[in-house]
Every structure is written in structure tokens, then in C-alpha cells.
Prior knowledge:
The protein is of the alpha/beta class. The protein is built from 9 helices and 8 strands. The site of zinc ion (ZN) has 4 residues, from loops.
Amino acid sequence: MNLIDIGVNLAHDSFDADRDAVMQRAAAAGVHQMIVTGASVEGSRKAIELARAHPGRLFATAGVHPHHAADLTEAALAELKDLAREREVVAAGECGLDYFRDFSPRDLQRRAFGWQLEVAASTGKPVFLHQRDAHDDFLAILREHMAGLAGGVAHCFTAGPKERDAYLELGLHIGITGWICDERRGMHLREVVQGIPADRILLETDAPYLLPRDLKPAPKSRRNEPHLLPHIAAAVAAARNESTETLARTATENTRRLFRLI
Ligand SMILES: [Zn+2]
């Protein structure tokens, strides 16, 4: 199997001690390539450094997560624009709106989101999107910019059919994580993924977050890792009534096409 993890926070400090081992375990499980999420200016710079050290295996995104929207000053935005143009960067973001946690004031979240969609448009790269409990505002801002964008992915999709269909209609891809393995919160996703066309589905772990809850035996560490992507692929494939091999092949093709990977 050959899988690409489109969302792994490999620059996260929880991987500092054993990042190479994490990458080796991933490769041994068939996850040979990964897109390292940039969620702050500093984190994006680290993601680019990682991608530069592992050409063809790691790629980066450059963006500021809505949690950090208050940090995206005009000076930081200028830095982010430069980072987004780097060769290793295959998408602008992670950007979007998160009204669930509200770590940054909502008006600043909306401003940071609009700015980053402009960055995405100016680079011609797709956009890596995060949305939680903010669907209406998110959609309104996205619609204003969509014509200038080279596509994108609604990453870590956890919402329902209404949100799915709105994103599909905008031409977006949908990223599915191990949330689908969560028997308390993720069961609805088993139906949601049935309605995602084969050419729009992407797979991601969002590691170190979102450890799949149905691993047997349960691992000692709560840290999620990219080597668990085949486990997520199997859950998504079962829900879609297709083989894991078929889903892996289409998700990998979709990833290469959307992010123009080499
Ligand atoms: Zn996210």
C-alpha cells in the first residue's frame, strides 16, 4: 500500500525526540510521503525546514491556524507570504475559523482567514482549511475568494452532510481523520464518507492529535502517528464499501493531483 498523510503536525515538539523513527515507522506501514502542517509562522518555517531535509518525502503547508489568528499581524502576514512561495510549500494554510474554542477573537479570525485566502490565490497553490462550529461565516468568506483559488481541502472534516455538500459544491476536497474511528463522536462520519465522490477524498492522521480510539490493544501513548494512516484508511474504506487498496490508490492520486506532488 502507498499512502500519503495530507495532515501531520510533524514539526510539533512531541516529535522532537524521535522524529526520524516516526518517519521510518510510517514508511514501513506504507506511508511514504506526508504533508507537514504549518499552523503558525514559526511552525510553517519548521515545516519547510523538515521538507527541505527530506525532499520528495515531506512537503509543507504555510499558514496560521485560527487559534493563532491574533498573532497574524500585518508584519507576520508579510513573512507568511514569503514562506508560502517556498518550493517545499504545497498549500496555503492551515487557515480558517474555529468558533468551538474561540482562542482568538472572531473578528481577528475572519481577518486572518481572508488574508490567507488572498495569499493562497497569489501563490496559485491550493488552500488547507480548518473549520469548527463556524460553517456559515466560513462558507461566506470562502465564497468571496473561491474564484481565485486553486482548489483546497476541508481538512479534518467532522461535520455532517450539509457541510459536506456545501464544500463539494465549491469544488473542495474532504480530508478524513481517525475521528471516524471514534465510537462516541465519529459514527456519523461513516455515512458522511459514503457521499464523497472518489476523486475528492483525502486521508490524514492530524498526528500527534486524534489518536484513533479503536486501536486494539490501546497504545500506551496518546500520541497519534502517521503509521496509523492505514488503520484510518481501512475504517473509511469499510464505511464506503470498497477495498482499502482501492481507497488508498484513489486518495493517493487525489493528493498528488491537488497538491501537485512530485
Ligand atoms: Zn485543523
